[in-house]
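User: Here's a chain of 211 residues. Predict its fold as tokens.
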Amino acid sequence: MTSRIKVLLVDDHPVVRAGLRALLDGFEEVVVVAEAGDGGSALRIAESHAGTENSIDLVVMDIQMPGTDGITATAKFKEMQGPPVLILTTYDTQADIVAAVRAGALGYLLKDAPPETLRRAVVDTAAGKSTLAPEVSAALLASMQKPEQRLSDRETEILHLLATGLSNRELSKKLFISEATVKTHLVHIYDKLDVENRTAAISKARQNKLI
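Assistant: Prediction complete.
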């Protein structure tokens, strides 16, 4: 029998981790050998396990976590030529997906995926194969087909804040920039999204899963 895939599970919610661990350990080919609540801890654990019998074969990682988030940690794993990363998250925005793939994630799956889909993704990602959920592949394709909708990190941040109902003045105070700069960003956002006002911008951004 081939050795089981040794997984490092990274999620900041203990209850979620417990459920995912039970699910992953239930797969014949998989065993969770370590857990972490943030990306920084995951990097340290992977390094401490390197060269041992519990050397990590795959990191299953959430995105939004305190401290070092999943995308930052994924980039560091790639930089150190560490184990492949499978993102397992509830976040399906185009911005998160593109950022994770650019950071080096080999797989990207949503937490509502069926168990068999998760098992297959774990096996394939550990083997070095790209494993992207269909909706993830669609979002990546959309980002390539519509480069005019590719917003900067700052523009995405402003869109998120717009969606909370902040005024230009409140945005400027929140971001420590002038109202004139806020207006300039909004002009660029409207142009990229081909809309004329903030309501339409928020609607289109949500429709295209940019926020």
